[in-house]
Amino acid sequence: AIREAGICVYGSFIYGLDGDTLDTPNLLYDFIEETGIDVPGINILRPIPGTALFERLASEGRLMFPKEDIYAFRYSWGQELLCKPKQISVEDFIESYCDLTARLFTLQQALKRTLNAPAIPHAILMFNLAYIQMYGLSRRDLRQQLLRLKQTHSEHLNFSSATSATDSFPSSVHLSVNS
């Protein structure tokens, strides 16, 4: 009904919630395709300092940076994994996020969304083209983060399967993306 009224839809989704599994990216992709969302946004869960989520993840040992490090939490155009997923290994999470965004943000997808947009197709095209670039940066940043983790903390990580929330990383690991 919304699209039939000429209203475009921006759908913003968070991947990395406690209930997410390796099935989640395919479910998100299918939902976005089936509903015809004009501009999808796929975000990684970011525990904001001072929130109940941040405190809970800190108490569970799932933050991937020291709780008191005010520089670890920052916004960037790219994405950075700041907390360990509950049901997915770090490596599988990063690769599944990268695969999802690589499938969603292509020139073909941007053109399809533009042609199907109920209104303002030029804006829909510009958003989707910008997101191709932005999510490309996100994939690069996340893969660099994963490579650094493998190089510096391989003895603490289980990259092949999901681990419990407390045994993947030492609590003092500070991860930052240097662009």
Automatic annotation (TrEMBL):
Stated name of the protein: DUF4070 domain-containing protein
Keywords on record: Iron, Iron-sulfur, Metal-binding, S-adenosyl-L-methionine
One annotated GO molecular function: iron-sulfur cluster binding
InterPro entries: BchE-like (IPR051198), rSAM_sf (IPR058240)
Cofactor(s) demanded: [4Fe-4S] cluster
GO cellular component terms listed in the entry, alphabetical order: cytosol
Keyword Iron-sulfur: yes
